[in-house]
Here is the input.
Amino acid sequence: MSKNNSNQFMCGKYQLDLAHPHVMGIVNVTPDSFSDGGRYASTEKAVAHAVQLVADGAHILDIGGESTRPNATPVGLEEELERVIPVIERLAREVDVPLSIDTYKPQVMSAAVKAGAAIINDIRGLQEPGAVEVAAEGDAGICIMHMQGTPQTMQQNPVYEDVVQEVATFLSERLQACMAAGIKAERIVLDPGFGFGKRTVHNLALLNGLPDILALGRPLLVGLSRKSVLGQIVGSDVDQRLHASLAASVISVMKGGRIVRVHDVKATVDALKVVDAVIHA
Ligand code: 7PJ
Here is the structure.
């Protein structure tokens, strides 16, 4: 495969060569209700998990303090900051991979970047007032994701005429808006947002349609790890979706995806080494 500039992803002090697939490990920072250590315990737990993911081969860590699963209760700004900022500060010192902040709140983006985050991963595609401006201020990489509706309502009745076309149009418009605000294309990756306001038919059409979205000219990030679409296909609970998730990661990269966002880093790294060897053979 030839070297292609559109595979370069600039994020803070890092430049990732996405000609090779990259694994983004998921780090959820949620309060630990079983421990009396409170905030300190949840910070320690998230940091330890993150350090393990890097040892397992994660190329990027995605840190999130608010669950965006369907029907999840929103987390307030102060609470979200208290969850994620101490974790990012610690990891910025302890690991040498780009840290991504999974948030749609401009205040969290800005604090996270100050604390050492190199990527802003926004499930709302920088649509919150002020988000594009915060992203344009620094040199962080940006992941623009598509979602229909909001996490509270998105799975109630998702409707599309042509899901691939509609997702591509949205991502293209957000890409233009970011570039108009001064964010260089090299800093942007795009994500169809699997499971965010999509039924199984929509998720499958999008997976098949990844080449059409790749045609927008920027690398694709794909998040299918343990998602309910896989549970529907395989008939398994969320903690029994490793094999289905590996299949999804392999297919995603074969179809043109370049960053996969996953829980099970070690297994995914091995699976994608095989895909990488085939792609570059
Ligand atoms: C995604 C995400 C995804 C990006 C979540 C879950 C839901 N960010 N954050 N793409 N999913 N960019 O992991 O089940 O698919 S949270």
